[in-house]
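INFO  loader      accepted 1 record
INFO  loader      residues=385
INFO  predictor   begin
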Amino acid sequence: MITDHTTIFVINWVCISLMVVMALILALATKLKNGAAYAALIVWMPSVPAYLHNMCRSTGMYEQAIPLIYFSNLTNTFTMPLLWLFVKSQIDGFFKFKPKMLLHFLPGLVSLGSMVVYYWGMPYHIRVQYIIEETNGAEHLPQLIDDVIVFGQMFIYYPIILRYLYKAKKQFLNNYSDSGYLNTLWIFRFMICLASLCAVVFVAYAIEPRTDVWLIPIANTLVMIYLVYNCITHPSVAYINRTSLSVQDNKHEQTSKISSQSLAQAQMEEYCNRIINYLKETQAYKNPDFSLSMLETATGISRKNISYSINTHLQKNFFELINQMRIEEAKRLLQLPDAKHYTIDSVYVECGFRSRSTFFLAFKKAENVSPAQWLSQLKIESKNR
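INFO  predictor   done
INFO  writer      dumping tokens
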């Protein structure tokens, strides 16, 4: 266990400096658009006050630690609501902050209120004694309330967030073809990573509370570097006109699935052949905004039957089917004898991809290699024939 004051001081100041720098970089790079404002708050607000307070109380700087505890406890309780709003702003293209969302921050105000009432008028020497006791693992009523709120939020918000992401992912893959979705995959990985990290911190804190003065800053800083990197390199795809996620939609999907199970194998095969023939003849898959509803209108097959047939007979979802056809078209263009005017950096537009990055992601997902590596392998194979 790290107890040396100099080491604690250095670790926390390095983490604080990195947090401030990351928040500034994020603000400048994204101009706080597309959910980046929430990300910046997540990076800076819940972390820096907590690091400062833990550092001061663990190194004997009690005069500074006393006022900082109010900011530390308040901002700790804001972390999970900010994460939830960040996820919503990244996934839901119609997301707008509403005043009622401020209710998510009410527990933080309760925690702050309990501290003010409990510590109000308490003599300085008694407050210092409390801080020393808390540093050694003891907890008083305000800290217990804060811990219950913080850890309770983790057990409430993480399941809600992960369930929402799962529903969003399922709905996106079954209804939309825009490969920009691939840019949001990091959010799923980030939330799973963060939930796992919080579980580790929870166990470590339960075994030895003083780990919060060095383990949490190091772990949080590494995770937040990952958050900032992805917010800059993979901005949200809010331009996609997604349908809203609701319980009613979920019930409808379940009903559709049950009713579609009566489809015969021959009927599903016939639907799939019609769908694929239509896509090949019209090359509708090259439209970046192509969706399941557009396919329904064009083929006359109901959405539930299209989804069930593709999922069951072709063993893939709508998104995978469309992007597979785009990748095959890209490979065809790159192999043409007169393909000199087609380059890796230009072919993606012709095939229905919005950007170079999403084309590379989709290609690597399908072929397990980048487009450049695939071309190199193709040239080697041609020479060996």
